[in-house]
Amino acid sequence: MVRTRILGCGTYLPANIVTNTDLSKRIDTSDEWIRERTGIHRRHIAADNEWTSDLAVHAANAALSDAGLKVSDIDLIMVATATPDHTFPATAAEVQRKLGLKRGAAFDLQAVCSGFVYGLSVADAMIKAGQAQTVLLIGAETFSRILDWTDRGTCVLFGDGAGAFVLQATPFDEIPGKKAEGPGILSCYLRSDGEYTDILYVDGGPSSTQTVGKLRMQGREVFRHAVTNIADAIRSVLRDVDLQISDIDWFVPHQANVRILTGTAKKLRIPEEKVILTVDRHANTSAASVPLAFGEGLVDGRIKPGDLVLFEAMGGGLTWGGVLARY
Fold first, then answer.
1. 327 vs 101, 196, 296, 301, CA distance in Å?
2. Which of 9, 254, 257, 282 is catalytic?
3. Which pLDDT belongs to residue 175?
4. What is the CATH T-level fold of the domain 184-326, as seen in this structure?
5. Active site residue 254
6. Residue-wise pLDDT tens digits, 212-222
7. Is 284 annotated in the active site?
8. CB-CB contact of 39 with 280 (8 Å)
9. N or C: which end of the chain has fewer CB atoms below 10 A?
10. Which one is catalytic: 9, 20, 113, 282?
């Protein structure tokens, strides 16, 4: 058998930090108002000359270094993003060019904030099907480019950044009755419900308006669905390998809003000390938030080899899902 193992992780955040106080000078808001409703203190915003592919390349190089591999070892690049450099070609192709990779394949994956979790599942399937041996999966976003900076209900929530995993096929002999033993991705669960496209979307596109558009959101509706759907994803991936909440070492959720994270943790009785939290400093970086949070847990020593890690996310679509892996 083959398992998809996480060999390396890399992250990148733009140098420009924008605090809540900075925003209060531009729009009708305050540090207290933002913190109370979201838990966010600050966010990173890409420079005018920084594209999504640039952020992705920084994270990719860091992940390759962490894995101890060269660019030439990669045979598939996937970029999860809702803010591509261009309508086409894929941002993954831009990353491939900037990395100097002349082999393999490259494509983008669009599931908004669930993009990296979707990407983990797709990468796992590609590896197990023999279509790839070593995958560079990147979540990268410049959400600042699609925000309405006059709408304090949305523009305070998001930031820019990128995170990347190097994933590789690893031979593994599964022990009967012990599906959760050994390193690698153990279970994936993906879902969507297009009935709710209108509660979180961008009001533009090549086919509809011929414009990029701006992000629009019904915050209360998103929150209501988020807690229920995320809990569903977590229960499903655990059920697949006969594990309980108490078996998990670390929960690495999509960093949307502190209220969503605490609401989900309370619903499932997840201990607060097991949840990796970065939304306070990164804000919502969409598809980049999961690898950014995982990377922080690695750097500060919380996440260690052998730990069971549960990744989860929900985004526009609505899309949601979970992935369970042993690091």
1. 27, 34, 14, 13
2. 254
3. 64
4. Peroxisomal Thiolase; Chain A, domain 1 (3.40.47)
5. yes
6. 999 999 999 99
7. yes
8. yes
9. N
10. 113
